[in-house]
Write a structure and sequence with these properties.
Helix content is 71%, strand content 2%. The chain has 436 residues and is mostly helical. The protein has one domain (6-432). It has a two-stranded antiparallel ribbon with strand order 1-2. Helix 14 runs antiparallel to helix 15 (335-349). The N and C termini lie far apart (49 Å).
Length: 436
């Protein structure tokens, strides 16, 4: 038996029963990601790869030496490469497309921009859409941009928008890799997506209208950005098509990732340097994602396996409980591993394995309400804090580089996330997840 055999991957994916203490590296790594950038940003910036690798090494050694299950770690490595190939290739291709904007946008133009960005997030991912659109967003509002402009960009384009396809947000792509059918998210999530998006855009319009009316007359009476938009780097749409097509390739193992990486390399080499310079393109954001998720993938194995085998002890017996708990942790941790953690717990309650694609598909068909709750919570609540989803902090960093005042961690939470996002998410729960 070798690594190209399907039976090998099924065997390697079988959950083993780890000692509960081995969940600690996973928890400590997520806690470090959440806290260290605010306690000592300089130290974290220089040493986060060592932290991620260090915690990951503990778990890998445990599985190799104590559990003698190297195949499980090889399966995790394959999933990590698939995840990073998609995220990284979309990031590179988006960096080769530059949108030039002139003029000052009126509120309705901003709302249309957010709507288009939300739809686009499902095609190039929330990371790709955020990196592509945040600079035009800043430029088109440069004379009156405030904190809520950045916050609602994060709410809508960096998170909620990407709820319709596995490409849209990292948690959903991890679910797809595990066996959730590709079109399941579009079929099941679109009503909640449409409602949430509509409510957030309406709230944004009210706030932006007030902001617009306070602006000087010369700004209010200036032309909108209509007619002065220009897009450079359209050749990258071909590379984007290759990436999207590769998502559907399952066999032979590795072909999907090779095509994605090839498209990224082609895009980077063929994109003129002035486009990259105009986008301030560099590999730091994706490098950070790569290192941190290397540690996350390595350490989350014990948590997933333990939850799968002990789910009945957690008291999670309804879609609403899965929704709120998944959401709460997605907001303060990272939503991708949180999604997998609670999906493992939900499947474990049914004596099903998250690491068996056939059983994952069965779960999606038979227990769709619980899967819907976990999916919506992971994506929507990822906007609760800067650390809930990868693009959030990237958007904050780019905005600050552009001299835009952004709320700090706690102001973001108290001024925007709790009073705006939580009521909207509560309405979603009441309308779509409440079942007697």
């Amino acid at each position: 038996m070798n690594w190209t055999d399907e039976s090998f991957w099924l065997l390697a994916a079988v959950a083993v029963d780890p000692h509960p203490a081995m969940i600690a590296p996973f928890a400590l790594l997520l806690l470090s990601i959440a806290v260290m950038p605010f306690l000592n940003a300089s130290w974290w910036h220089h040493h986060y790869p060592k932290v991620a690798v260090g915690f990951g090494a503990i778990t890998v050694i445990y599985y190799l030496v104590v559990l003698k299950n190297g195949g499980r770690m090889l399966h995790v490595a394959h999933e990590y490469v698939s995840f990073l190939a998609l995220i990284g290739s979309l990031f590179v291709v988006a960096g080769g497309i530059h949108i030039r904007v002139q003029g000052e946008a009126k509120p309705w133009v901003n709302c249309l921009f957010l709507l288009i960005g939300a739809v686009l997030a499902n095609l190039i991912g929330t990371t790709g859409a955020s990196m592509l659109l945040i600079r035009p967003w800043i430029r088109m509002n440069k004379y009156r941009i405030t904190a809520f402009h950045v916050v609602f960009f994060i709410f809508i384009i960096s998170n909620v928008g990407g709820c319709l396809t596995p490409i849209g947000d990292p948690p959903l792509f991890l679910g797809y890799l595990k066996g959730i059918p590709f079109w399941w998210t579009l079929q099941k999530c679109w009503p909640a997506w449409a409602l949430t998006l509509a409510l957030l855009i309406v709230i944004f319009y009210v706030l932006d209208r007030r902001n617009f009316l306070r602006a000087p007359r010369e700004i209010r009476e200036s032309e909108t950005a209509h007619g002065v938009w220009k897009i450079d780097g359209l050749r990258n749409l071909g590379f984007l098509a290759i990436i999207l097509g590769a998502v559907f390739i399952e066999h032979p193992v590795g072909l999907r990732e090779i095509l994605m990486i090839g498209a990224a390399v082609g895009s980077y080499l063929l994109t003129p340097r002035p486009i990259h310079e105009a986008n301030d393109f560099n590999f730091h954001p994706i490098r950070e994602v790569a290192w941190l998720f290397l540690g996350i993938f390595a350490t989350m194995g014990p948590a997933l396996d333990y939850l799968e085998l002990h789910a009945g002890e957690l008291g999670l017996d309804s879609a609403l409980k899965f929704y709120w708990l998944t959401g709460a942790l997605s907001g303060v941790l990272d939503n991708a591993p949180t999604y997998l953690t609670f999906l493992a717990a939900a499947m474990g309650r049914q004596q099903l394995s998250l690491n068996d694609a056939v059983q994952v598909k069965q779960f999606a068909e038979a227990h769709g309400l619980e899967l819907l709750a976990i999916s919506l919570a992971a994506v929507f609540f990822g906007a609760m804090t800067y650390i809930g989803n990868g693009p959030n902090f990237m958007v904050k960093s780019i905005s600050e580089q552009a001299k835009v005042k952004t709320p700090d961690f706690f102001s973001y939470l108290w001024r925007f996330a709790l009073p705006i996002l939580i009521p909207v998410c509560g309405l979603v729960a009441a309308l779509f997840l409440w079942r007697r």
